[in-house]
Design a protein that fits this description.
The chain is built from 1 helix and 9 strands; from the N terminus they run ββββββαβββ. By secondary structure, it is mainly β. It has one domain: Pnp Oxidase, Chain A (Roll). The strands form 2 sheets. The chain has a 7-stranded antiparallel sheet with strand order 2-1-7-8-9-6-3, covered by helices on one side. The longest helix has 16 residues. The protein is globular, with a radius of gyration of 18 Å. About 20% of the residues are buried. The mean pLDDT is about 95.
Length: about 140
């Protein structure tokens, strides 16, 4: 029987391998624009429109104690100074041959909110992606 395990998920921003995922859903990737839209005229005639956009956004949640926060903070602050912080982005469910996200270019959108309280909460990073491919695959690990 196929089995999903969070231990089989890998996420990387350039050379930074992100780990210490937050609780519950820890990554969401979505396209900025729909690939196909429909235009319908007043008389009922219609046509499809195809966008050339391949941009998107990835939201990654890490535990507040994750080393990834240190590494991503350094990457973001270096990019703020140099403007040269664009890197490749990659996420994969390694229990599937075809479940992955890639982006030719990614940048961190901005610093996450800095929040402290009674308990250490998660840190949410948002990546802007271009040249993005999203592929859904089934779990094949038994």
């Amino acid at each position: 029987m196929p089995t999903y395990s969070v231990a089989n998920v890998s996420i990387a921003f350039g050379e930074i391998l992100i780990s210490g995922f937050g609780p519950d859903d820890f990554i969401t990737v979505e396209a900025t624009n729909p690939t196909n839209t429909l235009t319908e005229g007043a008389d009922g005639a219609s046509h499809f429109n195809r966008s050339a956009s391949s941009s998107g956004k990835a939201t990654v949640t890490c535990l507040g104690s994750s080393l990834a926060n240190d590494l991503l903070s350094v990457a973001f602050n270096s990019d703020r100074i140099s403007g040269r912080g664009a890197k490749k982005f990659f996420a994969k469910d390694n229990s599937s041959a075809l479940s992955f996200v890639t982006a030719e270019t990614a940048k961190i959108e901005g610093p996450p909110p800095w929040t402290k309280g009674r308990q250490l909460g998660p840190t949410v990073w948002v990546f802007l992606l271009t040249g993005m491919v999203i592929n859904h695959g089934g779990t094949i690990t038994a």
